[in-house]
Amino acid sequence: MLYFCRKNRRGAVDLHGRPSQGGLARVADSHVPRSLDMQSEFRPALAYMCRRILHPLVRILVRFGVSAGEFKSIVDSVYAHAGKEYLEHQGGRVSYSRLAVITGINRSVLPAIMAAPREGDFQPRSSTQLHRAARVLAGWHDDRDFQTAAGRPAVLPVNGTRRSFEQLTRRYSGGVYYWTILAELERVGAVKRLGDNRVRTNRRSLSAGGASAESLMTAGEVTGDLMNTLDHNLCSRTHEQLPVKSLVLPVDPRSLPLFRAQVERRADVLLEQVESFLQSHRPEHSTTSPLGDQHQSLTLGTAVFAVLRGEDRNGKERPSAEGTTATGRRKR
After folding, report:
1. Which of 18, 100, 161, 181 shows the smallest number of beta carbons within 10 Å?
2. Which secondary-structure segment (H or E) carries 265?
3. Residue 139 and residue 144: Cα distance in Å, rounded?
């Protein structure tokens, strides 16, 4: 699945350079009905959307021992803060009574919820840096210039003018300094230093698999970006929407390894092209702009991830369409 994400913080501007009122406020002046609660035809679709989103999330929470009560406390906090943002963007007065009305949370518990400290925003590692490090690893495993006679990744000197990690990085990192790439690969355990000037690779991928605190927070970051993009599209006219493309087809399970490799290679090419475009459109650091520094808070990007629908944890086949788009319509 491919989608383009858009982050727009408070004080940002929209895609046309106008001051943004935020996703919730956009409902007021778009083709979407102002009050979805009064539109009964939306209720089944909203319930379906919630179940599809929550089921994999809750499956993760259960695996890590997060109870329904703990999850509810998180949901209440998110509801309260999102409700506060909604009232602020609408230009109305924020009060506990109004929050209770729009969120359904008991007014008596709202002061405690709003006073509780919120977790600090997770700051993900540089996606560019991680992407370049992954390319270096792939080159180490695929490029014969950096392999042994048996076709395995060779132990390389860290620096040197011939076959070395420095030259490997120069070929595949797109200009990132080789010590920076080496430090990142060491941090994630993908390589190991042998003495002062030699290094070997431990695996082909940055991640060893499984879960870690950072991988869970990164999953939240990526999923949040996707949901923000979908929210933007639901509240925007067609010409203002961001691309969200999806294709799902039943296949022979034996094709999974090849599918994984093909998508990974094509994703690398696409992300390089998108990065080149974004780098050429970096914001100008000018204080004379009529909008001040607001234009600098608009962040654009894209993400590519594969879709896997197989048997669920109970051995039952998950529903899948014979080729559907992101809107659920069958592709012809």
Report:
1. 161
2. helix 256-279
3. 9
φ/ψ of 222, rounded to 5, equals -65, -45
Asked whether the CA dihedral 187, 189, 195, 196 is positive or negative, the reply is: negative
Count Cβ atoms below 10 Å from residue 133 Cβ, excluding itself: 27
Residue with tokens 């405690």: 112
CB atoms within 10 A of CB 201: 20
pTM over 0.85: no
Residue 227: enclosing H or E segment and its boundaries? Answer: helix 213-234
- Residue pair 12/222 in contact (Cβ under 8 Å)? The answer is no
Q: Shortest CA distance to 223 belongs to which of 108, 60, 86?
A: 60
Sheet order of strands, 191-194 included: 156-157, 198-201, 191-194
Query: Average per-residue pLDDT in the chain?
Result: 77
Query: Could you tell me the sign of the dihedral formed by the alpha carbons of 33, 34, 40, 45, in that order?
Result: positive
pLDDT of residue 191: 92
